[in-house]
Amino acid sequence: MANRPAENTSLFTRAVHSGDRKRAPGSGFTPVTTPIHTATTYFYNDAADLERVFSGELPGPNYSRHGNPTNEALEALLASLESGDGALACSSGMAALHLAIVTALADRNKVILASGALYGATINMLAKVLAPFGIEAVFTDFCDEAAVARAIAEHKPGALLMETISNPLLRVAPMDRIAAMAKAAGAQLIVDSTFTTPLLLRPLEHGADYTVHSVTKYLAGHGDVLGGVVVTNEPNLEPLRMLSRSLGPLLGPFESYLTMRGIKSFPLRMERQCANAGRVASWLATHPAIDRVYFPGDPAHPDAAAIARLFAPGLFGAMVSFEVKGADQSAVFRLMNALRMVVPATSLGDVQSMVAYPVMASHRELSPKHRERLGIRDNLVRISVGIESVGDILADLDRALRA
Ligand SMILES: *Cc1c(COP(=O)(O)O)cnc(C)c1O
């Protein structure tokens, strides 16, 4: 049996214990951490048992694409953290999103209603990969409830897809209300919760049908794992596993182990990162070189009502975006080159603070006009705030802003 602390146990406790320390039957000892099970295939003392494992009558591994004990421990951990019945660990966030989308649409109208403010690769998957296979994607502003209601009535989507906090302008759509609208329309809601993690928000508790993460970011947290996960509830689990057995998007056991190791400290890291981000946001707001700051903890945030309903005080995420006064691309490059500690790299959610330039990275495929329409200007910079001393982060940013 997996070690599964009681459901009302704190997330900090479950992050350390859930899924770990499976007892091997008949052995007198139990390893303290789940081993990396590298075997691709398994046999049983009695061939009839293997037959029962294949038929699903007996629990146990038979072949790694169908399930692996290291992955299963990680999946039990993630299901526990996200309040779901089960999870599937995938080789990347994109593989997890793809699996969630095909599962949700398998027996529904092949139309997906998606937020216009999605991660760039997700927009590409919908528009350039899935659309040619006959899955129609309709994009709308998910912060506008009336627009979502109209789009549902007009397009009859089989699924809705949104992110908890958008990138890079950090908008927060009313996920709880959208979940109710999806349910009423018989559509399934897929929520990419990468920016929020289960410490801030657990979409399944608000009525979502699938929670997806790029575990590459906060959950693994150390910039050394590419991975993803889909967490869902009982009626969707068997279809999810069936499609996974057929498509084969699974995470490898080494990455699975590293992810579990990372998750043990994730609530501590995330709590610190959120606190640091709050300090960075308020410091930037008074800095003479800064025009504007985007941060979900800002009381004047355009989505303050949804944020107040969905988020706990002080836990507003660890992403901050800001516009540098009068800066063009070369001024932003000078700023990035002048940083000595903060890393000018593309990802987010790692222990180290990182600065990204959306115009160069996530939104480079868009025309300047399209970016302007989305509100992504040439002077917009995004920082993923790490766990370092906040004084050192501010000192580095200040030095670079004055360079
Ligand atoms: C990084 C990211 C993804 C994609 O995840 P990968 O692990 O890089 O495949 C999807 N959604 C969001 C919000 C992300 O930040």
Quickly describe the structure.
The protein is α/β, with parallel strands linked by helices and 403 residues long.
Explained architecture:
With 403 residues, the protein is of the alpha/beta class. The chain folds into two domains: 11-36 and 67-263, Type I PLP-dependent aspartate aminotransferase-like (Major domain) (Aspartate Aminotransferase, domain 2, 3-Layer(aba) Sandwich), CATH 3.40.640.10; 266-401, Aspartate Aminotransferase, domain 1 (Alpha-Beta Complex), CATH 3.90.1150.10. The protein contains 15 helices and eleven strands. The relative contact order is 0.12. The structure holds pyridoxal-5'-phosphate. Pyridoxal-5'-phosphate binds next to helix 4 and helix 5.
Arithmetic mean pLDDT: 95
CATH architecture of the largest domain: 3-Layer(aba) Sandwich
Uncertain runs are none
Helix count equals 15
Which kinds of small molecule does this entry bind, naming each only once?
Answer: pyridoxal-5'-phosphate
